[in-house]
DNA sequence: CCTACCGATCGGTAGG
DNA sequence: CCTACCGATCGGTAGG
Protein backbone atom coordinates (compact mmCIF):
# COMPACT_ATOMS: atom_id res chain seq x y z
CA UNK A 1 0.00 0.00 0.00
CA UNK A 2 2.69 2.48 1.04
CA UNK A 3 4.98 1.07 -1.61
CA UNK A 4 2.36 1.44 -4.35
CA UNK A 5 1.62 5.02 -3.37
CA UNK A 6 5.32 5.78 -3.29
CA UNK A 7 5.87 4.29 -6.75
CA UNK A 8 3.09 6.49 -8.10
CA UNK A 9 4.57 9.61 -6.55
CA UNK A 10 8.11 8.75 -7.68
CA UNK A 11 6.83 8.28 -11.21
CA UNK A 12 4.79 11.50 -11.23
CA UNK A 13 7.12 13.89 -9.41
CA UNK A 14 10.43 12.06 -9.27
CA UNK A 15 12.12 10.53 -6.22
CA UNK A 16 13.79 13.70 -5.02
CA UNK A 17 10.67 15.82 -5.37
CA UNK A 18 8.58 13.38 -3.39
CA UNK A 19 8.70 14.17 0.32
CA UNK A 20 7.76 11.78 3.08
CA UNK A 21 5.00 14.27 3.92
CA UNK A 22 3.63 13.86 0.37
CA UNK A 23 3.67 10.11 0.81
CA UNK A 24 2.11 10.29 4.28
CA UNK A 25 -0.75 12.45 2.98
CA UNK A 26 -1.38 9.93 0.22
CA UNK A 27 -1.81 7.03 2.65
CA UNK A 28 -3.54 9.19 5.28
CA UNK A 29 -0.91 9.04 7.97
CA UNK A 30 1.45 11.51 9.59
CA UNK A 31 4.97 11.46 8.20
CA UNK A 32 6.45 10.01 11.37
CA UNK A 33 4.00 7.09 11.34
CA UNK A 34 5.39 5.89 8.02
CA UNK A 35 8.46 4.71 9.88
CA UNK A 36 6.48 2.00 11.61
CA UNK A 37 6.09 0.39 8.18
CA UNK A 38 9.31 1.26 6.41
CA UNK A 39 12.90 1.85 7.38
CA UNK A 40 13.67 4.81 5.18
CA UNK A 41 12.68 6.61 2.00
CA UNK A 42 15.42 4.94 0.05
CA UNK A 43 14.39 1.47 1.15
CA UNK A 44 11.20 1.91 -0.90
CA UNK A 45 13.19 2.89 -3.97
CA UNK A 46 15.44 -0.12 -3.47
CA UNK A 47 12.46 -2.47 -3.40
CA UNK A 48 11.06 -0.99 -6.59
CA UNK A 49 14.37 -1.17 -8.44
CA UNK A 50 15.41 -4.66 -7.38
CA UNK A 51 11.95 -6.21 -7.75
CA UNK A 52 11.85 -5.09 -11.36
CA UNK A 53 15.43 -6.10 -12.06
CA UNK A 54 14.53 -9.56 -10.80
CA UNK A 55 11.46 -9.71 -13.03
CA UNK A 56 13.49 -8.92 -16.12
CA UNK A 57 16.21 -11.42 -15.28
CA UNK A 58 13.72 -14.20 -14.58
CA UNK A 59 12.02 -13.47 -17.90
CA UNK A 60 15.37 -13.62 -19.64
CA UNK A 61 16.06 -17.03 -18.12
CA UNK A 62 12.76 -18.33 -19.50
CA UNK A 63 13.50 -16.99 -22.97
CA UNK A 64 16.97 -18.48 -23.02
CA UNK A 65 15.42 -21.91 -22.46
CA UNK A 66 13.29 -21.67 -25.60
CA UNK A 67 14.13 -23.85 -28.58
CA UNK A 68 13.71 -20.99 -31.03
CA UNK A 69 15.50 -18.78 -33.54
CA UNK A 70 17.20 -15.60 -32.38
CA UNK A 71 14.47 -13.56 -34.05
CA UNK A 72 11.80 -15.44 -32.11
CA UNK A 73 13.71 -15.01 -28.87
CA UNK A 74 13.92 -11.28 -29.49
CA UNK A 75 10.20 -11.20 -30.19
CA UNK A 76 9.68 -13.00 -26.88
CA UNK A 77 11.86 -10.46 -25.07
CA UNK A 78 9.99 -7.53 -26.57
CA UNK A 79 6.81 -9.19 -25.33
CA UNK A 80 8.45 -9.60 -21.92
CA UNK A 81 9.16 -5.88 -21.68
CA UNK A 82 5.64 -5.03 -22.74
CA UNK A 83 4.19 -7.61 -20.36
CA UNK A 84 6.07 -6.23 -17.37
CA UNK A 85 5.01 -2.72 -18.32
CA UNK A 86 1.38 -3.79 -18.64
CA UNK A 87 1.27 -5.53 -15.29
CA UNK A 88 2.75 -2.72 -13.24
CA UNK A 89 3.43 0.45 -15.21
CA UNK A 90 3.95 2.60 -12.19
CA UNK A 91 6.64 0.53 -10.63
CA UNK A 92 8.53 -0.06 -13.85
CA UNK A 93 8.56 3.65 -14.69
CA UNK A 94 10.00 4.54 -11.30
CA UNK A 95 12.55 1.77 -11.77
CA UNK A 96 13.53 3.16 -15.15
CA UNK A 97 13.86 6.79 -14.20
CA UNK A 98 14.81 6.89 -10.54
CA UNK A 99 17.39 4.16 -9.97
CA UNK A 100 20.18 6.69 -10.11
CA UNK A 101 19.12 8.00 -6.71
CA UNK A 102 20.10 4.74 -5.06
CA UNK A 103 23.03 5.15 -2.68
CA UNK A 104 26.01 2.86 -2.57
CA UNK A 105 26.42 -0.07 -2.40
CA UNK A 106 22.93 -0.54 -3.85
CA UNK A 107 23.67 1.62 -6.85
CA UNK A 108 26.61 -0.51 -7.95
CA UNK A 109 24.69 -3.71 -7.29
CA UNK A 110 21.80 -2.45 -9.40
CA UNK A 111 24.07 -1.44 -12.24
CA UNK A 112 25.62 -4.90 -12.21
CA UNK A 113 22.20 -6.56 -12.61
CA UNK A 114 21.35 -4.21 -15.44
CA UNK A 115 24.62 -4.96 -17.13
CA UNK A 116 24.07 -8.69 -16.80
CA UNK A 117 20.65 -8.42 -18.44
CA UNK A 118 22.08 -6.39 -21.28
CA UNK A 119 24.89 -8.87 -21.84
CA UNK A 120 22.55 -11.82 -22.09
CA UNK A 121 20.31 -9.90 -24.49
CA UNK A 122 23.31 -8.95 -26.58
CA UNK A 123 24.43 -12.58 -26.88
CA UNK A 124 21.09 -13.49 -28.42
CA UNK A 125 21.43 -10.72 -30.99
CA UNK A 126 24.98 -11.67 -31.84
CA UNK A 127 24.06 -15.30 -32.30
CA UNK A 128 21.23 -14.26 -34.63
CA UNK A 129 23.62 -12.21 -36.72
CA UNK A 130 26.19 -15.02 -36.79
CA UNK A 131 23.59 -17.52 -37.99
CA UNK A 132 22.29 -15.12 -40.63
CA UNK A 133 18.85 -14.89 -39.01
CA UNK A 134 19.39 -11.18 -38.43
CA UNK A 135 20.91 -8.55 -40.66
CA UNK A 136 24.53 -7.69 -39.79
CA UNK A 137 23.64 -5.05 -37.21
CA UNK A 138 25.88 -3.55 -34.58
CA UNK A 139 24.67 -5.45 -31.50
CA UNK A 140 24.84 -2.46 -29.14
CA UNK A 141 22.86 -0.26 -31.48
CA UNK A 142 20.26 -2.98 -31.93
CA UNK A 143 20.13 -3.65 -28.20
CA UNK A 144 19.51 -0.08 -27.12
CA UNK A 145 17.14 0.58 -29.98
CA UNK A 146 14.97 -2.31 -28.81
CA UNK A 147 15.13 -1.23 -25.17
CA UNK A 148 14.19 2.32 -26.05
CA UNK A 149 11.41 1.32 -28.37
CA UNK A 150 9.53 -0.31 -25.55
CA UNK A 151 10.52 2.25 -22.93
CA UNK A 152 8.08 4.90 -24.15
CA UNK A 153 5.27 2.45 -23.49
CA UNK A 154 5.76 2.95 -19.78
CA UNK A 155 4.52 6.50 -20.27
CA UNK A 156 1.96 5.47 -22.84
CA UNK A 157 0.06 2.80 -20.94
CA UNK A 158 -0.26 5.21 -18.07
CA UNK A 159 -2.41 7.60 -20.08
CA UNK A 160 -3.85 4.72 -22.11
CA UNK A 161 -5.04 6.34 -25.30
CA UNK A 162 -7.25 3.73 -26.85
CA UNK A 163 -4.92 1.30 -28.56
CA UNK A 164 -4.79 -2.08 -26.88
CA UNK A 165 -1.57 -3.51 -25.55
CA UNK A 166 -1.83 -6.29 -28.11
CA UNK A 167 -2.06 -3.86 -31.00
CA UNK A 168 0.89 -1.87 -29.75
CA UNK A 169 2.90 -5.04 -29.27
CA UNK A 170 2.20 -6.26 -32.78
CA UNK A 171 3.07 -2.90 -34.31
CA UNK A 172 6.35 -2.50 -32.45
CA UNK A 173 7.48 -6.03 -33.18
CA UNK A 174 6.69 -5.64 -36.86
CA UNK A 175 8.39 -2.27 -37.05
CA UNK A 176 11.59 -3.50 -35.42
CA UNK A 177 11.72 -6.81 -37.26
CA UNK A 178 10.56 -5.75 -40.72
CA UNK A 179 11.18 -2.00 -40.77
CA UNK A 180 8.97 0.91 -41.77
CA UNK A 181 9.68 1.23 -45.43
CA UNK A 182 7.85 -0.72 -48.13
CA UNK A 183 9.97 -2.85 -50.43
CA UNK A 184 11.17 -1.14 -53.57
CA UNK B 1 29.41 29.17 -18.50
CA UNK B 2 27.00 28.93 -15.58
CA UNK B 3 24.38 27.54 -17.89
CA UNK B 4 26.71 24.83 -19.24
CA UNK B 5 27.76 23.79 -15.76
CA UNK B 6 24.13 23.68 -14.68
CA UNK B 7 23.14 21.53 -17.66
CA UNK B 8 25.90 19.07 -16.77
CA UNK B 9 24.77 18.87 -13.15
CA UNK B 10 21.09 18.56 -14.10
CA UNK B 11 21.97 15.71 -16.44
CA UNK B 12 24.17 13.91 -13.93
CA UNK B 13 22.20 14.36 -10.71
CA UNK B 14 18.81 15.63 -11.85
CA UNK B 15 17.36 19.13 -11.43
CA UNK B 16 16.00 18.60 -7.94
CA UNK B 17 19.19 17.00 -6.63
CA UNK B 18 21.33 19.84 -7.92
CA UNK B 19 21.65 22.59 -5.33
CA UNK B 20 22.73 26.13 -6.05
CA UNK B 21 25.70 25.41 -3.80
CA UNK B 22 26.67 22.51 -6.10
CA UNK B 23 26.45 24.83 -9.07
CA UNK B 24 28.38 27.59 -7.32
CA UNK B 25 31.22 25.21 -6.45
CA UNK B 26 31.39 24.11 -10.06
CA UNK B 27 31.91 27.66 -11.34
CA UNK B 28 34.04 28.70 -8.35
CA UNK B 29 31.69 31.22 -6.80
CA UNK B 30 29.65 31.47 -3.63
CA UNK B 31 26.02 30.51 -4.02
CA UNK B 32 24.81 34.05 -3.48
CA UNK B 33 27.04 35.39 -6.24
CA UNK B 34 25.24 33.26 -8.81
CA UNK B 35 22.33 35.63 -8.52
CA UNK B 36 24.32 38.41 -10.16
CA UNK B 37 24.23 36.31 -13.35
CA UNK B 38 20.91 34.53 -13.16
CA UNK B 39 17.48 35.26 -11.78
CA UNK B 40 16.65 31.87 -10.31
CA UNK B 41 17.43 28.19 -10.52
CA UNK B 42 14.39 27.55 -12.66
CA UNK B 43 15.35 30.22 -15.17
CA UNK B 44 18.33 28.07 -16.16
CA UNK B 45 16.09 25.05 -16.69
CA UNK B 46 13.74 27.17 -18.77
CA UNK B 47 16.57 28.27 -21.05
CA UNK B 48 17.72 24.69 -21.55
CA UNK B 49 14.23 23.42 -22.32
CA UNK B 50 13.10 26.18 -24.65
CA UNK B 51 16.42 26.46 -26.52
CA UNK B 52 16.21 22.78 -27.40
CA UNK B 53 12.52 22.93 -28.27
CA UNK B 54 13.35 25.75 -30.68
CA UNK B 55 16.17 23.72 -32.25
CA UNK B 56 13.87 20.80 -32.94
CA UNK B 57 11.11 22.96 -34.38
CA UNK B 58 13.51 24.86 -36.66
CA UNK B 59 14.90 21.55 -37.89
CA UNK B 60 11.37 20.33 -38.56
CA UNK B 61 10.65 23.43 -40.63
CA UNK B 62 13.70 22.74 -42.79
CA UNK B 63 12.70 19.13 -43.32
CA UNK B 64 9.15 20.05 -44.29
CA UNK B 65 10.55 22.23 -47.09
CA UNK B 66 12.36 19.29 -48.70
CA UNK B 67 11.08 17.92 -51.98
CA UNK B 68 11.42 14.34 -50.85
CA UNK B 69 9.52 11.16 -50.04
CA UNK B 70 8.13 10.59 -46.56
CA UNK B 71 10.79 7.95 -45.96
CA UNK B 72 13.53 10.43 -46.85
CA UNK B 73 11.99 13.09 -44.62
CA UNK B 74 11.94 10.63 -41.72
CA UNK B 75 15.56 9.77 -42.40
CA UNK B 76 16.32 13.51 -42.31
CA UNK B 77 14.48 13.86 -38.99
CA UNK B 78 16.36 10.95 -37.46
CA UNK B 79 19.55 12.68 -38.56
CA UNK B 80 18.25 15.91 -36.99
CA UNK B 81 17.77 14.22 -33.62
CA UNK B 82 21.22 12.67 -33.79
CA UNK B 83 22.76 15.97 -34.93
CA UNK B 84 21.27 17.91 -32.03
CA UNK B 85 22.41 15.20 -29.63
CA UNK B 86 25.93 15.28 -31.07
CA UNK B 87 26.28 19.05 -30.86
CA UNK B 88 25.17 19.42 -27.27
CA UNK B 89 24.49 16.14 -25.52
CA UNK B 90 24.41 17.63 -22.08
CA UNK B 91 21.77 20.20 -22.77
CA UNK B 92 19.53 17.86 -24.73
CA UNK B 93 19.64 15.23 -21.99
CA UNK B 94 18.59 17.75 -19.35
CA UNK B 95 15.86 18.93 -21.70
CA UNK B 96 14.61 15.38 -22.14
CA UNK B 97 14.60 14.34 -18.52
CA UNK B 98 14.03 17.47 -16.46
CA UNK B 99 11.37 19.54 -18.24
CA UNK B 100 8.71 18.25 -15.87
CA UNK B 101 10.20 20.41 -13.12
CA UNK B 102 9.22 23.58 -14.96
CA UNK B 103 6.56 25.57 -13.11
CA UNK B 104 3.48 27.03 -14.71
CA UNK B 105 2.93 28.72 -17.07
CA UNK B 106 6.22 27.52 -18.58
CA UNK B 107 5.30 23.87 -18.19
CA UNK B 108 2.15 24.22 -20.28
CA UNK B 109 3.95 26.31 -22.86
CA UNK B 110 6.67 23.71 -23.14
CA UNK B 111 4.18 20.87 -23.50
CA UNK B 112 2.45 22.78 -26.29
CA UNK B 113 5.71 23.09 -28.24
CA UNK B 114 6.39 19.42 -27.76
CA UNK B 115 2.93 18.54 -28.96
CA UNK B 116 3.31 20.72 -32.02
CA UNK B 117 6.55 18.98 -32.96
CA UNK B 118 4.94 15.57 -32.54
CA UNK B 119 1.96 16.54 -34.65
CA UNK B 120 4.10 17.74 -37.54
CA UNK B 121 6.18 14.55 -37.34
CA UNK B 122 3.05 12.44 -37.30
CA UNK B 123 1.70 14.14 -40.43
CA UNK B 124 4.81 13.10 -42.33
CA UNK B 125 4.38 9.49 -41.25
CA UNK B 126 0.69 9.45 -42.13
CA UNK B 127 1.36 10.89 -45.58
CA UNK B 128 3.99 8.21 -46.16
CA UNK B 129 1.52 5.50 -45.23
CA UNK B 130 -1.19 7.02 -47.42
CA UNK B 131 1.12 7.16 -50.43
CA UNK B 132 2.29 3.58 -49.84
CA UNK B 133 5.87 4.65 -49.17
CA UNK B 134 5.61 3.25 -45.66
CA UNK B 135 4.01 0.08 -44.38
CA UNK B 136 0.55 0.59 -42.83
CA UNK B 137 1.85 1.38 -39.35
CA UNK B 138 -0.02 2.96 -36.49
CA UNK B 139 1.39 6.51 -36.67
CA UNK B 140 1.64 7.00 -32.90
CA UNK B 141 3.49 3.74 -32.41
CA UNK B 142 5.87 4.61 -35.24
CA UNK B 143 6.34 8.15 -33.92
CA UNK B 144 7.28 7.19 -30.37
CA UNK B 145 9.37 4.26 -31.51
CA UNK B 146 11.48 6.64 -33.61
CA UNK B 147 11.76 9.20 -30.82
CA UNK B 148 12.81 6.55 -28.34
CA UNK B 149 15.27 4.92 -30.67
CA UNK B 150 17.34 8.06 -30.81
CA UNK B 151 16.78 9.03 -27.18
CA UNK B 152 19.22 6.47 -25.79
CA UNK B 153 21.94 8.14 -27.83
CA UNK B 154 21.86 11.07 -25.46
CA UNK B 155 23.25 8.77 -22.82
CA UNK B 156 25.48 6.95 -25.26
CA UNK B 157 27.41 9.85 -26.76
CA UNK B 158 28.15 11.01 -23.27
CA UNK B 159 30.21 7.95 -22.48
CA UNK B 160 31.27 7.59 -26.14
CA UNK B 161 32.21 3.97 -26.48
CA UNK B 162 34.10 3.88 -29.73
CA UNK B 163 31.48 3.81 -32.46
CA UNK B 164 31.34 6.99 -34.48
CA UNK B 165 28.18 9.07 -34.69
CA UNK B 166 28.02 8.31 -38.40
CA UNK B 167 28.10 4.57 -37.84
CA UNK B 168 25.42 4.77 -35.18
CA UNK B 169 23.28 6.95 -37.43
CA UNK B 170 23.54 4.54 -40.35
CA UNK B 171 22.71 1.54 -38.16
CA UNK B 172 19.67 3.12 -36.53
CA UNK B 173 18.26 4.38 -39.80
CA UNK B 174 18.68 0.98 -41.42
CA UNK B 175 17.17 -0.82 -38.47
CA UNK B 176 14.09 1.39 -38.36
CA UNK B 177 13.58 1.54 -42.10
CA UNK B 178 14.44 -2.03 -43.10
CA UNK B 179 14.05 -3.98 -39.86
CA UNK B 180 16.30 -6.47 -38.11
CA UNK B 181 15.23 -9.72 -39.65
CA UNK B 182 16.66 -11.12 -42.86
CA UNK B 183 14.19 -11.85 -45.65
CA UNK B 184 12.80 -15.33 -45.69
C1' DC C 1 31.95 39.39 -5.81
C1' DC C 2 31.50 38.21 -0.55
C1' DT C 3 29.64 37.45 4.51
C1' DA C 4 25.82 36.78 7.02
C1' DC C 5 21.52 35.30 7.29
C1' DC C 6 16.27 34.33 6.19
C1' DG C 7 12.09 31.20 6.43
C1' DA C 8 10.78 26.85 4.53
C1' DT C 9 11.29 22.24 4.08
C1' DC C 10 13.77 18.01 4.23
C1' DG C 11 14.34 12.86 6.25
C1' DG C 12 14.06 11.05 10.44
C1' DT C 13 13.80 10.30 15.91
C1' DA C 14 12.09 10.44 20.87
C1' DG C 15 8.72 9.40 23.70
C1' DG C 16 4.34 8.08 24.71
C1' DC D 1 -0.52 5.69 15.49
C1' DC D 2 0.40 10.74 17.15
C1' DT D 3 2.73 15.35 18.90
C1' DA D 4 6.75 17.56 19.22
C1' DC D 5 10.98 18.32 17.63
C1' DC D 6 16.00 17.58 15.62
C1' DG D 7 19.97 19.16 12.64
C1' DA D 8 20.81 19.70 7.82
C1' DT D 9 19.97 21.75 3.73
C1' DC D 10 17.26 24.24 0.45
C1' DG D 11 16.61 28.68 -2.84
C1' DG D 12 17.21 33.16 -2.25
C1' DT D 13 18.04 38.19 -0.11
C1' DA D 14 20.28 42.24 2.37
C1' DG D 15 23.85 44.98 2.55
C1' DG D 16 28.23 46.27 1.51
List keywords for this structure.
homodimer, mainly alpha, 72% helix, elongated, DNA-binding
What report would you give on this structure?
Two copies of one chain form a homodimer. Chain A has 184 residues and is mainly α. Chain A has eight helices and no strands. Chain A has helices at residues 2-13, 20-26, 41-65, 70-87, 89-98, 106-130, 139-159, 165-178. In chain A, helix 4 (70-87) crosses helix 5 and helix 6 (106-130) crosses helix 7. Chain A is elongated. The model of chain A has no long low-confidence stretch (mean pLDDT 93). The interface between A and B is large, with 41 and 41 residues. The first copy, chain A, binds a DNA duplex (16 and 16 nucleotides) through residues 19-21, 29-36, 40-41.
SSE blueprint and pairings:
Two copies of one chain form a homodimer.
Chain A: H1 2-13, H2 20-26, H3 41-65, H4 70-87, H5 89-98, H6 106-130, H7 139-159, H8 165-178
Helix pairs in contact in A: 1-2, 1-5, 3-4, 3-5, 3-6, 4-5, 4-6, 4-7, 4-8, 5-7, 6-7
Chain A binds a DNA duplex (16 and 16 nucleotides) through residues 19-21, 29-36, 40-41.
Amino acid sequence: MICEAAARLFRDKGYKSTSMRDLAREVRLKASSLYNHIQSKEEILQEICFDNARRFLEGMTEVEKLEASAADKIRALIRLHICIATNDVTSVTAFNDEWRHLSEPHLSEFKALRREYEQRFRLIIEEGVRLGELKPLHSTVALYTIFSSVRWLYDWFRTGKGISANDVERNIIRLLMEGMETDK
